[in-house]
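Hi V.,

Quick status before I head out on leave. The structure for the redesign project is tokenized and pasted below; the design run finished overnight.
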């Protein structure tokens, strides 16, 4: 009698091996459905958050990270201003690789102006748009010396008058350097605001104004950092990690399938 051929061990092993990606893939809807969900969100078609839901969302952010910090490395208000200017259309990590050498040579407007555009350009050439940024850094340094006594002004209009400084940069400086409860809307916060339905707007300014309206005052100082970190590490652009989300049960995004937060927050 002919012996039955045993089934290959590899087949048995493969069949018994758990599909680790299956559970993760089920956490959000397919890419096409997610894109449609984002379009719906951008058009303001999502349910409104209640005041209680907004308060609960920020309570959880605060419980998970009571004192959030910006990720741009700096020494003082001036180096913070320079770092934020350099971070436009660049990553914080990329800026942090270039600025230690720059700030070791110049951490005041006077020193930076003396350093010169060519030297600054050479030190930051790993950062995108480094030629324009070097010109702006020297320009704002000279203006700080000539018009503000070498100090970073605690004034929005004065900040926005500096070369390379827009509303977002001014908001970051006012928040971190001077403790103002401003909300700087970058690409991450713009996405989070629209996707979740928390603050829908066609422009960063629209989203900023909506956030300033809905975020409870007691959470406003740190809201900027919580939302940026949330957008950078959880609510990602291509594939949000809803299975890790602290506010999955509150979020109005129709692209998710997870309706419970990742972990209980006290």
């Amino acid at each position: 009698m002919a012996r039955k051929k045993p089934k290959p061990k590899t087949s048995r092993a493969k069949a018994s091996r758990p599909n680790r990606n299956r559970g993760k893939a089920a956490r959000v809807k397919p890419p096409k459905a997610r894109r449609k969900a984002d379009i719906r969100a951008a058009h303001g078609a999502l349910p409104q958050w209640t005041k209680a839901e907004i308060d609960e969302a920020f309570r959880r952010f605060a419980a998970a990270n009571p004192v959030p910090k910006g990720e741009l490395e700096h020494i003082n208000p001036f180096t913070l201003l320079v770092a934020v200017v350099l971070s436009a259309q660049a990553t914080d990590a990329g800026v942090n690789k270039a600025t230690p050498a720059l700030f070791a040579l110049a951490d005041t407007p006077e020193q930076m102006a003396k350093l010169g555009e060519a030297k600054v350009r050479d030190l930051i050439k790993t950062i995108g748009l480094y030629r324009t940024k070097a010109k702006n850094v020297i320009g704002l340094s000279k203006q700080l010396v000539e018009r503000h006594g070498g100090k970073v002004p605690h004034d929005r209009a004065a900040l926005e008058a500096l070369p390379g400084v827009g509303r977002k940069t001014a908001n970051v400086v006012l928040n971190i350097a001077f403790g103002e409860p401003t909300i700087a809307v970058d690409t991450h916060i713009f996405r989070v605001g629209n996707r979740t339905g928390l603050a829908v707007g066609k422009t960063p300014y629209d989203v900023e104004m909506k956030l300033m309206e809905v975020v409870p005052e007691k959470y406003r100082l740190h809201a900027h950092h919580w939302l940026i970190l949330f957008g950078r590490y959880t609510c990602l652009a291509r594939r949000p990690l809803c299975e890790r989300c602290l506010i999955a049960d509150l979020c109005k995004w129709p692209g998710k399938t997870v309706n419970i937060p990742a972990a209980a927050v006290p």
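Above is the designed sequence. The chain has 14 helices and no strands.

G. will cover questions while I'm gone.

Best,
W.
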